[in-house]
Design goal:
It is a single chain. It is built from 22 helices and 17 strands. The protein is of the alpha+beta class. It has a six-stranded antiparallel beta sheet with strand order 2-3-1-9-8-10, covered by helices on one side. It has a six-stranded antiparallel beta sheet with strand order 4-5-6-7-11-12, with helices on one face. β2 and β3 form a beta hairpin.
Length: 589
């Protein structure tokens, strides 16, 4: 996976960092030595020339991993100088999906900054009292750590949410740089500051959708301008991707779309599939669509790579879909756009915002995938999984309870659940996440309450309340952007987006019931039927059971339920085995 790396290291140490940064046959690496510091950049070269920028001046060195939108090339030298001199003033004005490092050639000053949504990961550590190492991958930092060890709280996050929140990583002494933040090194000390804070509110329905359409298409067009060749798009039978396809086709006529089979979902013969519906969308837009296959064999072969590329920060189960990128021909497209970048109204519900529980409890209810009791039973050290939510509620505290919930979700959920997965795609091709401009974020953060999902009445008796599907605002945005695409079925409900929202929710409940009666998700069946994949995952489980970190009896119970009783324990098993794979690759070697 390409990215930035460097710090207070020499040329030989920088070469070690480069060797520990993933680079395939489509990548190139550039290294720069300064007095007492060195910086490196691994990029896609001719595959995605707009996906990186180098500003090499007599007084300043700037490296951009990603793309800055609406910034003329001639303005870049002055821009990086401005970032170094006045980061709090200049960084908020920069839009785009990027990770930026700027070094002063005349002093020891160094700055590393993330974009407003944190679409490019950055990790950092202080190996000694006055030193700094940073990189887009954890493995680039490991050679400089003294006796690295697991962060148990991060492991608890993984088991609870299938990802790690906040500044934590799986390594105790390594931290993740948050969205809209910059790391500052002045030659002796490291400090981290936030340069931009999103504003939240609730607009009325009147006039909101036209504003959303304008800023949404503007953000897509600005990001498309950073792609020199053909842009690509992951296209499914859902709403996010076809909405983005509609926006992209308004600006460009050379879009290429790709559809992968989602192995961790249901693939019922009773319903139109992602592949069928994506073909219909592509035909309606007159753009090519190429199916990419995922098999149990390919998943087995790439499991290690999925964990390696995402630094063990996301469980492999949600990453299985994007592993199809290795079937993609990188010469056919410059950069693939990621549409699973949900509007905030899609995840934070009306009920969460109008409730009275502590923000941490609301965050826990929304984001925890597994019961706290199971997480505690799996770990031998004493942990309280909910502590992460309390920490983030305090860290993201705003004037109102609702704003605190929105800020914590905006800071963590999208950053960790969606953007880290794009590191897998960048192992093969350039990527873009277009919803990073301040204008579109400001509008997205003011979605009317009526545009959010909510609990379906009377479903609380089922144990887990059912949420309405989809977010009403998603339907409204697609209808406003493209009426023809609104007539094609939505995979989750098998109804066209023109149908009333209440019918979508009813249809979703019916489809889920039919899917779940007598069937299993495709990936679960693979774990049952494919002997090679099953043996490999089981070996990882047994390895985890032998470690002092985990409770062996709980792991053996989960194994029995998965492999002998047919219960779908794939999510928690993917979390356990992700940690085990990370330990084998990073700490056991």
């Amino acid at each position: 996976m390409p990215g930035l790396f460097g710090g207070t290291v020499g040329p030989d140490e920088l070469r070690t960092m480069a060797d520990e940064t993933y680079a395939g046959d489509v990548h190139e690496t550039a290294r720069f030595a300064l007095d007492g510091r060195a910086l490196g950049l691994t990029h896609h070269g001719d595959v995605d020339p707009g996906g990186h920028t180098v500003v090499d001046e007599a007084d300043v060195l700037g490296l951009v991993y990603g793309a800055l939108t609406r910034v003329p090339t001639d303005d870049l030298p002055d821009l990086v100088r401005g970032v170094l001199e006045s980061p709090q003033e200049v960084l908020p004005r920069i839009d785009g999906p990027f990770l930026l490092v700027v070094a002063d050639r005349t002093s020891d000053r160094l700055l590393v900054a993330t974009d407003k949504r944190g679409t490019r990961a950055c990790y950092y550590a202080e190996p000694d009292a006055s030193g700094l190492v940073f990189g887009s991958e954890l493995t680039a930092l490991v050679p400089f750590l003294d006796d690295p060890s697991l962060d148990v709280r991060a492991v608890a996050d993984m088991l609870s949410m299938l990802c790690v929140w906040g500044e934590r990583t799986l390594l105790e002494t390594v931290r993740a740089l948050r969205p809209a933040s910059y790391l500052w090194y002045d030659g002796s000390e490291v400090s981290v500051e936030s340069y931009w804070t999103p504003t939240f509110g609730e607009r009325t329905d009147d006039g909101y959708v036209p504003d959303l359409v304008d800023t949404y298409t503007e953000a897509i067009e600005a990001t498309l301008d950073t792609v020199e060749g053909a842009p690509g798009l992951w296209l499914s039978g859902g709403l996010d991707s076809r909405t983005m396809a509609a926006g992209m086709c308004k600006a460009r006529d050379d879009l290429v779309t790709y559809t992968y089979r989602r192995p961790m979902g249901y693939d019922s013969a009773h319903f139109a599939t992602d592949r069928t519906l994506a073909e219909r969308v592509a035909t309606a837009l007159s753009v090519p669509n190429e199916p990419l296959e995922i098999t149990p064999e390919s998943l087995h072969e790439r499991l290690d790579e999925l964990v390696r590329l995402t630094d063990g920060m996301v469980a492999w189960r949600p990453l299985a879909n994007v592993s199809a990128v290795f079937e993609l021909d990188p010469s056919a497209v410059d950069a693939v756009f990621e549409a699973s970048d949900p509007l905030i109204g899609a995840h934070v519900t009306q009920d969460a915002l109008s409730g009275v529980s502590h923000p941490a409890d609301a965050l826990h209810e929304m984001h925890a995938r597994h019961p706290d009791g199971l997480v505690k039973a799996l770990l031998t050290p004493e942990v309280e999984p909910k502590d992460t939510f309390f920490e983030e509620a305090v860290r993201c505290r705003r004037e109102t309870r609702a704003e605190t919930i929105l800020h914590a979700t905006n800071t963590n959920y999208y950053f960790k659940n969606h953007y880290l997965g794009n590191k897998v795609a960048r192992a093969r091709v350039g990527t873009r996440m277009p919803l990073t401009t301040e204008r579109v974020l400001r509008v997205m953060n003011q979605v009317p309450r009526s545009g959010r999902r909510r609990r379906v009445p009377f479903t609380a008796a089922l144990g887990t309340p059912v949420l309405s599907v989809p977010a009403p605002m998603k339907l409204q945005l697609l209808r406003a952007l493209d009426t023809d695409l609104s007539k094609i079925k939505y995979e989750a409900t098998q109804l066209p987006p023109t149908a009333p929202h209440a019918l979508h929710t009813a249809a979703f409940l019916c489809k889920e019931t039919i899917d779940r009666v007598g069937t299993q998700p495709t990936g679960t069946r693979w774990l049952q039927s494919d002997e090679t994949l099953r043996r490999y995952v089981d070996d990882l489980l047994l390895g985890a059971a032998d470690r002092d970190l985990f409770d062996a009896s709980t792991i053996h119970r989960l194994r029995h339920e998965q492999f002998h009783e047919g219960t779908d324990r794939t999510p928690i098993i993917s979390a356990i085995t992700t940690v085990e794979l990370f330990v084998r690759m990073v700490l056991d070697d």
